[in-house]
């Protein structure tokens, strides 16, 4: 996450406009809604999913290719590596390999390491805001040259993300969703949205069949603790004790290992700098409140006070948490429970960026699995396509369109679970 606005988004916007991607996406939504069957006997549904996914994936490739040729992705016009969010990872990893992991949390030292990593100075600063447990991953990719590391990072995390979705939807539909879901902003930022989605998808996809493996995924998710807020509540309410215990053991083992590998100073630095980061990002808007895709960001971006923003965020989070716990305690289908939890995970944190919205693909995967089996409701595909479209138009509309996409998915799940569920015949 950059502490200054990334001006390269304007070049990406231009490439998208040249490619006509948003126009084609809108046209695809219209065709799908007109042709989509509303029951599980209509096989063209899966074919349409594939056509839409491949069309969108081609559009993304055109955008990325055009942006690269313009010198705004991976390398600049002089062939030098471009600094994006990934530079904070490789810089932290190299500091850790050099035996100075605590320096990753010191902004001046970390910025100097970022400059060394790409070989030239740049105006932005991309902070390292993760617990020391994530230094293991950072150190691993830091053994590679910068560009190679960036490509390997995106490829490896995308593979994990695709594996999680195929585990939910099956190979064909899961892969189509992985390549078709609008994850463009995670790629251009070099961020970890694929990894977060893979761990949440793994947790929910394995929970019923392999609760211990689900616990491992959840334990690894502690590298981004803001996305684990609801899981303890839900798992305890649903009495998933094995998953809870394994997750706690994995998280504890990671913390202990990082203490041995990187020293206690890294944890002290993390504890010292996190309140400063919170003040700069949340209180002062150092990263631009319009980029925060949360209730907190919505209030702050539209002129509300910090107190008002926290009140709205906390109240909204309590309502969402209560609804999720109620749903998981109910007799609703597991797919609806999992979809709701994946989407709600995004709704309850104040610290949410567009690249994190890749997690919404997990919620969509469970909704698609449910609807492919039970039949689509009127307007459901239109609503899901609209949520995807909102994520795509983010550079054009600097407001919380990602939050709206999350709320759309949550409303679809609520409709399915509370209103439409009685209309679905139960298995004998």
Describe what this molecule looks like in 3D.
By secondary structure, this protein is mainly α. Helix content is 68%, strand content 0%. The protein has one domain (9-282, 290-421). The longest helix has 26 residues, at 44-69. 49% of the residues are buried.
What topology emerges from the helices and strands here?
Layout lengths: L8 H11 L1 H15 L8 H26 L16 H12 L9 H12 L16 H7 L4 H24 L1 H10 L3 H6 L3 H14 L4 H10 L10 H7 L3 H22 L1 H20 L11 H7 L4 H24 L4 H14 L12 H15 L5 H13 L8 H20 L8
Q: What coarse outline follows from CA principal-axis ratios? A: globular
In oligomeric terms, what are we looking at? single chain
Instruction: Give the N-terminus to C-terminus distance in angstroms.
Output: 51 Å
| SSE arrangement, N to C | HHHHHHHHHHHHHHHHHHHH
Q: What's the total number of strands?
A: 0
Q: Percent range for helical residues? A: 55-70%
Beta-strand content: under 5%
Total helices: the number is 20
The largest sheet is: none
Give the count of structural domains.
Answer: 1
Poorly predicted runs are 19-42, 423-428
Category from helices, strands and their pairing? mainly alpha
Give the averaged pLDDT, no decimals. 88
Cα radius of gyration in angstroms: 21 Å
Key features of this structure:
globular; disordered C terminus; single chain; mainly alpha; 428 residues
Short summary of the structure?
The protein contains 20 helices and no strands.
């Amino acid at each position: 996450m950059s502490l200054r606005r990334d001006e390269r988004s304007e070049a990406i916007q231009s490439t998208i406009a040249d490619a006509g991607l948003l126009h084609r996406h809108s046209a695809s939504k219209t065709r799908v809604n007109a042709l989509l069957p509303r029951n599980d006997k209509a096989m063209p549904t899966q074919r349409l999913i594939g056509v839409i996914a491949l069309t969108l994936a081609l559009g993304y490739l055109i955008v990325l290719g055009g942006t690269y040729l313009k010198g705004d992705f991976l390398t600049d016009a002089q062939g030098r590596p471009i600094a994006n969010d990934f530079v904070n990872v490789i810089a932290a990893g190299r500091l850790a390999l050099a035996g100075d992991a605590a320096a990753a949390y010191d902004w001046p030292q970390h910025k100097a390491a970022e400059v060394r990593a790409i070989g030239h100075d740049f105006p932005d600063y991309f902070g390292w805001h993760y617990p020391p447990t994530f230094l293991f991953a950072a150190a691993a990719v830091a053994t590679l040259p910068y560009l190679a590391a960036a490509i390997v990072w995106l490829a490896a995390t995308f593979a994990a993300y695709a594996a999680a979705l195929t585990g939910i939807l099956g190979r064909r539909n899961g892969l189509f969703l992985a390549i078709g879901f609008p994850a463009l902003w995670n790629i251009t930022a070099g961020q970890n949205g694929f990894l977060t989605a893979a761990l949440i998808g793994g947790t929910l996809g394995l929970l019923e069949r392999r609760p211990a493996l689900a616990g491992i995924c959840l334990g690894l998710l502690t590298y981004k603790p803001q996305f684990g807020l609801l899981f303890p509540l839900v798992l305890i309410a649903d009495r998933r004790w094995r998953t809870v215990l394994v997750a706690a053991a994995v998280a504890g083992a990671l913390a202990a290992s990082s203490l041995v590998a990187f020293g206690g100073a890294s944890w002290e630095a993390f504890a010292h700098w996190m309140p400063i980061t919170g003040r700069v990002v949340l209180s002062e808007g150092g990263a631009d409140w319009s980029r925060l895709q949360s209730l907190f960001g919505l209030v702050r971006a539209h002129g509300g006070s910090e107190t008002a923003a926290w009140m709205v965020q906390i109240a909204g989070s309590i309502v969402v948490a209560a609804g999720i716990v109620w749903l998981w305690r109910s007799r609703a289908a597991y797919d609806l429970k999992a979809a709701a939890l994946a989407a709600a995970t995004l709704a309850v944190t104040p610290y949410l960026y567009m690249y994190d919205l890749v997690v919404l693909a997990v919620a969509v995967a469970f909704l698609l699995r449910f609807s492919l089996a039970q039949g689509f409701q009127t307007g459901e595909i239109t609503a899901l396509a609209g949520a995807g479209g909102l994520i795509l138009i983010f550079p054009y509309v600097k407001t919380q369109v990602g939050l709206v996409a999350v709320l759309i998915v949550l409303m679809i799940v609520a409709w399915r679970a509370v209103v439409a569920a009685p209309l679905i015949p139960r298995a004998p």
